[in-house]
Amino acid sequence: MGLVLAAGASMRMRPLPNKLTQRIDDERVLVAVPVDAMIEAGIDPVFVVLGNEGASVREFLGERTPTYLSHPGWEAGIGSSIAAGVRGILETHRPKGILVCVGDLPGLRARWLLSLVDTFVSVGTNGCICVPTHAGRHGHPVLFGAGHFAALMELDGDRGGRIVVEANPEEVREVEIDSDAILRDIDTPADLEAWRSS
Fold it and tell me: How far apart are CA 142 and CA 117, in angstroms?
């Protein structure tokens, strides 16, 4: 089960509008990348947390059909968006794990998601946390087992799931990815331009 975080204000992108609706190539806007990667990887269902300019984000996702979760308290930060997303999922589903992804990863690939899922399945415990790594650094997305859902629902403010990862080092399984794209989220106009030029 997948959760894409698309509720933030993109403050560091100003004067450009919402970064998630910015084109990264001739075909797609930024927020479509994690949604498409999850769909291609067979992760079903995919949930998208909406907040700031939610109607616009939804419009730019076009004919894709994830389940949308509205988060009125999105201004509280990414932690609150994760909490709202997990709560929304658990209202109707009881997954063994949730793959939590930021909405601004332009280089995300389905095969990396499958590597995380394969590791999670092989470990077979609800306490497992699968984290992609590159060159010794943790990236996105992160797959949290059901044993951590309660902690995720307690998140608030600007700190995200990293708090839960750091609090449970014995449960973390690192999955090496052969690309730095798992580290390259888009925060500023310069980031966006650098990605388009790469």
Answer: 10
pTM of the predicted structure, to 2 decimals: 0.95
Q: Alpha-carbon distance 76 to 60, whole Å?
A: 24
* CATH code of domain 2-197: 3.90.550.10
Sequence-distant (6+) residues with CB within 8 A of 63 are none
Domain ranges of the chain: 2-197
User: Could you give phi then psi for residue 2, rounded to 5 degrees?
Assistant: -115, 145
CA distance 60 to 58: 5
| Lowest-pLDDT choice from 79-83, 98-102, 192-196 | 192-196
Q: Measure the CA–CA gap between 67 and 132, rounded to whole angstroms.
A: 25
Condensed to tens digits (0 to 9), the pLDDT of residues 29-67 reads: 999 999 999 999 999 999 999 999 999 999 999 999 999
